[in-house]
Design goal:
Blueprint lengths: L1 H5 L3 H20 L7 E4 L5 E4 L1 H6 L27 H11 L1 E6 L2 E7 L50 H10 L54 H8 L41 E5 L2 H27 L6 H22 L6 E5 L1 H8 L16 E7 L7 H12 L8 E7 L4 H24 L6 H5 L14 H20 L1 H27 L32 E2 L2 E2 L1 E7 L27 E6 L10 H16 L4 E6 L3 E2 L4 H9 L7 E5 L3 E3 L12 H12 L11 E4 H4 L7 H4 L15 H4 L8 H5 L3 H13 L27 H9 L24 H11 L3 E4 L7 E4 L4 H19 L14 H12 L3 H18 L9 H25 L3 H15 L2 H15 L33 H22 L6 H17 L1 H8 L7 H21 L17
Length: 1126
Amino acid sequence: MMSSSSQPSKKSVRNTGVSESSSSQGARNSGGPTVKFARRTSSGKYVTLSREDIDMSGDMSGDYMNYTVHIPPTPDNQPMDSSVAMKAEEQYVSNSLFTGGFNSVTRAHLMDKVIDSEVSHPQMAGAKGSACSMPACDGKVMKDERGNDVIPCECRFKICRDCFLDAQKESGLCPGCKEPYRVGEYDDDADYSNRALPLPAPDGSKRDANNMSVMKRNQNGEFDHNRWLFETKGTYGVGNAYWPQEDHMYGGDGDGGMQGGMIDPSDKPWKPLSRIIPIPTAILSPYRLLIFVRLIVLGFFLHWRIAHPNQDALWLWFMSIICETWFAFSWILDQIPKFSPINRSTDLEVLHEKFDAPTPSNPTGRSDLPGVDFFVSTADPDKEPPLVTANTILSILAVDYPVEKLSCYVSDDGGALLTFEAMAEAASFADLWVPFCRKHQIEPRNPESYFNLKVDPTKNKSRSDFVKDRRRVKREYDEFKVRINGLPDSIRRRSDAFNAREEMKMMKHMKESGADPSEPIKVLKATWMADGTHWPGTWASPSREHAKGDHAGILQVMLKPPSPDPLLGSADDKIIDFAEVDIRLPMFVYVSREKRPGYDHNKKAGAMNALVRASAILSNGPFILNLDCDHYIYNCKAVREGMCFMMDRGGENICYIQFPQRFEGIDPSDRYANHNTVFFDGNMRALDGLQGPVYVGTGCMFRRFALYGFNPPLVDQVNPKKGEGESEMQALSASEFDRDLDVNLLPKRFGNSTMLAESIPIAEFQGRPLADHPAVKYGRPPGALRVPRDPLDATTVAEAVSVISCWYEDKTEWGDRVGWIYGSVTEDVVTGYRMHNRGWRSVYCVTKRDSFRGSAPINLTDRLHQVLRWATGSVEIFFSKNNAILASRRLNFLQRLAYLNVGIYPFTSVFLIVYCFLPALSLFSGFFIVQTLSIAFLIYLLTITICLVLLAILEVKWSGVELEQWWRNEQFWLISGTSAHFAAVVQGLLKVIAGIEINFTLTSKSAAEDDEDIYADLYIVKWSSLMIPPIVIAMVNIIAIVVAFSRTIFSVYPDWSKFIGGAFFSFWVLAHLYPFAKGLMGRRGKTPTIVYVWAGLVAITISLLWIAISPPKGGAKGYKTEFQFP
């Protein structure tokens, strides 16, 4: 009794340990390096000493003060786990489904079963574990990073988290041995940020079977350190004397870097992380000259056209002048911003040396890179197949970036259980897929794309077990696809079974209560989760609070945050030998924001803002990379490539890194210009030489601080009171970011979450580049981001649930100044424009290997509707306060022209449609746009055409676009300009004038597995009203050519010059419409009947209209040939 009372309670011990760790972490955050002292005893052990012990001992050398002593892990010196209470809390959070929202309490539903299939990875929710030994308890024992049971007592009594906390509160005694728990004894040694590398055997192998010294003790029964160090060639001291060989992942030739020893980065010459590669002068100078020449010739041409009207057909001349003037203006807006194109390159080896290479102060090589939060958005599992989204998630989890710095968030705006369980299955399969990718350097890391590659998979693979491993992973992936594709049926059968059980219970209750058996049984047709509880999101049979627009907010940590140090696998854990492979997985979170009737949820932009807030609470990565659910990571080093720009000198002024969009599954001829290479390789490279490329919605790495609506940091203006010699390497408060922002007004801008407000200066500080060069005046000290992040607790996750509620944005600036901007269907362009308008700049990152790849609609109808959505957003931008005409002075002039063109280009469709009819009107009337085909007109026309061709050739040279792709882009420009762009102008005007809203459907993501014809969608003809204008234009021009040719042949004095002029321009129109006509033919020329109907109607209408306007002049003698409408 006395001994037990003299022991401190477990709760007090645990709290003491937490306070000590937090205080030590605060010391680390303050910037001062921690120094551990040690003394060797007579037995060879090293014992730690406090500063007071060192001050009292007089025989300690002064040199001891300058070193950090790292003790290599040996059989009697193994790293201790963190506190059991902390592990218990973290496991409780990862195994709980958190729900909440407006006027509801946030609840944590503990799930011991997330999916029907078995879960093995210890980081994942619902991981299998041993049963609790307490009577009448069916809980699971806590797990460590490797999935082993966490036993808090030496008696090995297994206990779950809840029972452990109860025992801790009640008596502090272990229920098994009745002895006090000894928790927190080793909490002071739980920080291994500066721990040395493990010493391998001399031959580089993990274990030497012939080396028996590790199993023997000296005469005192203690481990013989001297013998062990002699055999491993290791010594104690600063770091380890034994260092692994140079990592060739980022170098490769072994000429530089660390070879057998540590090199401090400060001793190396400073190197930039990125470089600007200018376009060769031999290409750029003629390109600029031709722009000026064509601009001058256009001016003279328009002046000549105005000065020489066609008196015979003024109406034809006037329409052509108006159209040509607008085309000249539109060409200026499109061409002038291309005046200064550039290319860029990155140096991944330098990035590795600065942030990941081991140094004397960082012997383990813990990464100093900032955190990155990935956002993946999906809304409807019927149109966006879960298998596509799952493959995207797997490619993110396997990306080549420090695991502890990565977090992945998937936004399910439909709140579907199908998506939830598909993401859980993906997290479970990642346990095998991610280590396999790391072991064999797999590219791409999307399993569907990887296993469908048509190349030799063994190319550049050196390990002998690759073929065996690949075969096993392929088999597991096939089973994974079967489970994903079978989820809808599985959920339906499970829900039917549980609903039938509820009906039986209700019937039994009615019989026992004596109710009328003829009354119908009223049981809600609920959707049930794998653990036998109601799904809090959308049900298959919608009901109140369980519909697409009416459900609670849901948050599930699928994969809890990993440990800060590598966790190597073993040969016995999985079906594949993962020895010497890091088996950790990044944090993965499922989020479905709350939706309620009566609230404007702002579509995708609102979902992205909910992810911004939730991620700020949970991980607070200073950088955010958003992807569509069908865009996956094709280059595993893409994040590092983008980070080279953010972490380079001047990177603090970059708001986002835009990667080009690349697509798969497009027909070889690219009939409808789906690759859009002229825009991504031409326009975007050109904008990169100005203030930066526009944001295109996916494949973009944002600076979180810029998304919060702040201006770029200007050191002289942020704190002008600082002297020149003072460092800027410190976090700033919100009022220093924005002088107009009062700290008391933070809730008005960001909402009432205190955690969110506190995360802002942290994200800003962690997103700064390294202050490793005198020119970097706004950086952070090296090593500031090596501190492990705190584990998640229930309070933090509950706060994340509250910030995704439907009411949180009320009376705040979310969507107006902060986050993704609301009010437009093209929220991406507006969001990027707002950042540029505040003075930020962006960078275009084109990598040698495509960074991301996705799918695009190859069907004509889907493609036109996609372009319609973009064009409608541009019209909305033009009529809003986001028009570039109203931009601030911080926006570059040429950048202003580019944004102005974004809002104006749809209006070109009005003039384009008129101009496409002019050749037909010319042929019908017998007049041309000019009086006669004079020499001056032909010279002007020839000069403009030659300049256009030469500009295209030079643009192909500096952008890398092929001529065929350039021609496809020109063809689809006319197709979309006469269909989708014109419809967008009409719909935009209706919205502005009459307030009529336009709803857009999602573009279907292809998940077909038809190996016989992967381009089957190309030949599907789905009728749309957007097809009417191009059909009318084509038919009118064809009829006009036939009529004019017949009239010219049978004329007494044929005027071939007028016919050739009109026919040439008609053929120009028809050549551009050729892909459209081919698309209408369908497979093997099977043209839909409605096309023939429209063609006939157009032909008859034009014939009657022309006869009414210009009736025949003569006829046979004695006959009257006038025609009148009845």
